[in-house]
Amino acid sequence: MVVQDVETVFDVDTMKAIRDRICQIAGTEYRKEEAKDVSIRLITDHIRSTTFMISDGIMPSNEGRGYVLRRLIRRAARHGRLLGIQGKFLAGLSETVINECRDGYPELEEKRAFILNVLTQEEDKFSRTIDQGLSILSQMEARMEAEGKNLLSGEDAFKLYDTYGFPIDLTEEILSEKGFATDQAGFETCMERQKEMARKARKETNYMGADVTVYESIDPSVTTEFVGYDRLQHSSRITVLTTETELMEALTDGQVGTVIVEETPFYATMGGQTGDRGVITTADGSFEVKDTVKLLGGKVAHIGTVTKGMVKVGDRAVLTVDADRRGDICRNHSATHLLQKALREVLGGHVEQCGSYVDGERLRFDFSHFAAMTGEELDRVEKMVNARIGENLEVVTQEMGIEEAKKTGAMALFGEKYGEKVRVVRMGDFSVELCGGTHVASTGVISSFKILSESGIAAGIRRIEAITGNGVLAYYKGLEKTIEDASAALRTTPGALVEKCGSLMAQVKALSSELESLKAKAARESLGDVLHNVKEVKGVKFLPAAVEGVDMNGLRDLGDQLKDKLGEGVILLLSSLEGKVNMVAMATEDAMTKGAHAGNLIKGIAGLVGGGGGGRPGMAQAGGKNPAGIPACMEEAARVLEGQLG
Length: 646
Prior knowledge:
- The chain has about 650 residues and is α+β, with helices and mostly antiparallel strands.
- It contains 18 helices and 25 strands.
- The strands form six sheets. A six-stranded antiparallel β-barrel has the order 4-7-11-10-9-12. Strands 20-21-22-23-25-24 form a six-stranded mixed beta sheet, sandwiched between helices.
């Protein structure tokens, strides 16, 4: 404002460009009408905010920062409607933001398509919300008119707001145009009641939203230092022992509990990496660690069972991590870094990590992307990761200040809290990320990488599950076993399995065709010459017939054949098969012009065999579960048909 000598931030060149674009879209002028100016300024501010938020990896949702983003987008969209803007406009407006700000923020240009896609989808959702809310509001208006009222209750206004996302000021505006008012005080009462319920719910739990645990009884001065980046065994002193409910001085054989020490090589579950397992031994006992978790105040809890003797507070203990499992976890974790970089290379810079999970068996990686990945894209990503593994890139971890780390270009998770000192994990020149987890010494240790699945888990969020090293070997070993079992079952060799399957499928097709022919022939023979059963109902030929053991397809084929023989009229076929009833009715063109309707005929008689169904005037079918009712159906059908004919 000072440099450009303007009165408000909305007159600064970058903001003015957005403001002017809004006026152009809305067909209005700024500073002509105060109510419109409010909407113009609000949209200007919100479209800038939302563009940058999406570029930083925030996605619209119903909680946390995602909820803030959703409210900003919807508020801007609603004020666009107030300005008279027709249709979606936020994505187009965001292009102006990107064009104005990309010199200072090049990531906006990199993620342009992604930002526009998010805004378009969210604006579409809001349009449906608004339309649904308008429909509900119309019903409320009709009810008020019928009851002679002109005030919408606070409860109804709050229902529109809370259930359908319909803003209260929009409700008031629409109603005021039609001579109605809104009980604002009643609305505020409902709002306060909901807030009070939320506050009460928070008071009933601790600040972490969980029930109080034994860990909160531990002296806050107790801490644990992690020393396991470069070692899997370490000696330390036991400072705290607990059962599930109380602090203990000792744990004995068979007891389940928690061990806390001064220093540990066990990695606690953090940042998506699962905790280590292993063994803690003392002079008098042994403790099997089944999980390792991080507690408040810098404490690490080793959770498990005493397998021998007794462990006591103050004991000197040797902590030994399960080396094989840690190795598998490291392989999967390092592969996750390679995967993220490969996804950004293949899909674009908009890809941001939205969550991950790494254990000894597999890795799971959630990321921002709006479309399902194609087979070709997955193949490119998999090949790229395996290529980096084959290059055996050195994995270097450095500890440095957060500002220095940012200068290295290290990827960081938006919204994650980092201390003054951070660990930067670099894999050659390919991947640089901030990460506190454990990793392999070089990418060659990962051995191999295989994507198992790619799926969507939320709007704009995709998930990849993959395996590495020993997991890949086990995966292909399992496939090999499956192929061998299938080959043995089909009495062939693995090399000839595909050819054998093709041959068998051809045989199945031929046999199925032969079976259908035999079934049709058997049905015709069991039906016999039924044309002598033809009745005449008000000048229309009607042929009802029952046959045993014919499925629905068979009945339709029989119906077509009988229709050719009958010429003009109505046919009804019923069959009992495996304790159930199949029914098919057909009517020719001539019969339909006289009022016959196969669908209504079926509806009229299906209840007699405990079933239901229907269809078109010319052909209908139904199923039932009472074969004993077939004779009654055939008798009733003539009466139903008679009622249809003029």
